[in-house]
Input
Amino acid sequence: MSELIIQLSQWLLTLTQGAEPWDSYARYLPRLMDGVWVTLQLVVVSGIVGFLMAIPIALMRISKSPWLWIFPYCYIFFFRGTPLLVQIFLIYYGLSQFESLRNLGWIWTDVLSQPYWCAIIAFSLNTSAYIAELFRGAILAVPKGEVEAAQSLGISRRKQYQHIILPRAFGIILPAYGNEVILMLKGSALASTITLLDLMGATRGAIARTYMSLEFFLLAGLLYLLLTAVLIGFFRLLENWYNAHQHAINMSLEKVDPQLRDKHLEDNVR
Amino acid sequence: MQWSKKFLTSAVLMASASMIAPAAMSDTIRIATEGAYAPFNFIDSTGKPGGFDVEIAEALCAEMQASCEIVTQDWDGIIPGLRARRYDAIIASMSITEERERVVAFTNPYYSNVLAFIGPAGSEMSTDSESLAGKTIGAQRATIAGQFLEDNLGSVVNVRLYDTQDNAYLDLASGRLDGMLSDKFPAYDWLQTDAGNGFEFKGEDIDIDDKIAIAVRLNDTELKERFNAALEAIVENGTYAEINARYFPFSIY
Output
């Protein structure tokens, strides 16, 4: 144990001593920052695309007609049931095996032959399956009374979904959606396996040249933590704003006009 | 209490002894290879590592009368693994470079490597930097070819770096890469396969004075000397030439 402590402290000293490590940090930090930018793009784009795809998938999934729910059921089963790495390799190395796909013109040259777009496609498909499952649960959890109130007002089913059920469901999934985006951020490190220079790719590039694996992996870990902190903050703000009605319960009752105070409301607060 | 104290002391002593004692003292030498660099090292149909590197490793061990255990390790973690004492030597077609010599010690070289460009057969592809401008060229990450690409052509060509040589071949075959830069001998092997059928060497070989050697930990001088003596012996007694002939019709020493 004492041996380990001595080695650890020696290593900590070598982290900063001499010009050489600092040269390497100065040289590769800008590349790591480029990597952070690529990682952010991957997460934000696939987070939004995945979200938009999830809504129709979830709506089909809750349908009672087997013709409608069978496709999203299989889709969700596949993307939740296979590793993300397998999905990336299938899309990047797998699709490129088909000669006919390579003759599709711009679809091949500008999209499917590019590691960037392959990564976005894989991440979007993967995350949309998870978000669709969140949405399915949330739609079923929208209070029955609200739907019945809408029905009694004669609001059409389409409008019910548009103005009541989906906005309510969004509020319900928000915390879980933030969680899913953070999972996606960490999953995005797999993009480095298809030559993309995301944060992980840039880190592995730096280690390949300097052999300072511990130092650069620590640095990458720190940058991922920072990104996670930013995402957590963003989703906290979004939730406070969107689900403001749930937080209003903290309002002090003393400030409310005494004449408006009623027994029922006070009990509810307690 | 007494017992646990004793136990702790001996555990610390044992741990520190294994830190200090050179690997050569133990009977088994653990040797790492990559297993994705045919024909030098690959995983054969029975799941065991095989290839030129592995046969050289076995011949060296036989010469040293040591028992050896050969393990496989991904390329970009292969030097960290050696430094972390997960094995004692790397015989994985590793080039001697200045950057690596700072962190590991190398034996005498056991073969010499040149780099070569590969491109689609029949296509006109010159390998000077003007004609390569704007092209997408691949190589394996953390290799001499990858470093040569980044250092000499990084500003003119679109460099793609792959985890394994096999993945780079896949993208060459799919047309994502216009060409790739690779060590010549493994590429020679790939060009003989069905997948490599439509491709050929392009331009001149690039001699980068690239010597391939066995890597050991910096302070492991004894093991290094044992490898050097054994290497000299198998070159002299013809074992080396025998192994060479099984893989290439020309000498690579």
Q: What stands out?
A: The two ends of chain B are 60 Å apart (CA to CA).
